[in-house]
Amino acid sequence: MDCIFCKIARNEIKTEYVYEDSEVIAFNDIKPQAPAHIIVIPRKHIEKPDDLNKDNSRIMQKLYNAALKIVELKKLTTDGYRVVLNCGKNAGQEVAHIHMHILGGRKFAWPPG
Ligand code: AMP
Ligand code: ZN
Q: Is residue 113 situated within a structural domain?
């Protein structure tokens, strides 16, 4: 499948993982929007959050368990951080493989732009 995050998961695009287990990998965003910007993905292709259902949504728990480890590892818990899921066109989802952004290391505005 011609999906950039699947290629990263299959190691066809060499990317250093920040975290990995049997179902989840995480890596630094190639265009970081903050001093810490990590992408967390399932190894298995799911296009977008709308495609989650009762049979596959447990992967979100796995993604979040990984996120908890990553924010500890990156020492983001003291000052706080942001977790983002972009869903579709209006949110600016560019990569059609479900992913969680973890952003930290600076203050973030709210509401988001
Ligand atoms: P989104 O707009 O939510 O779809 O975010 C996709 C993110 O993936 C963007 O922040 C991109 O900078 C990032 N990205 C795209 N290609 C790569 C890559 N090869 N390695 C790391 N991050 C990437
Ligand atoms: Zn994919």
A: no
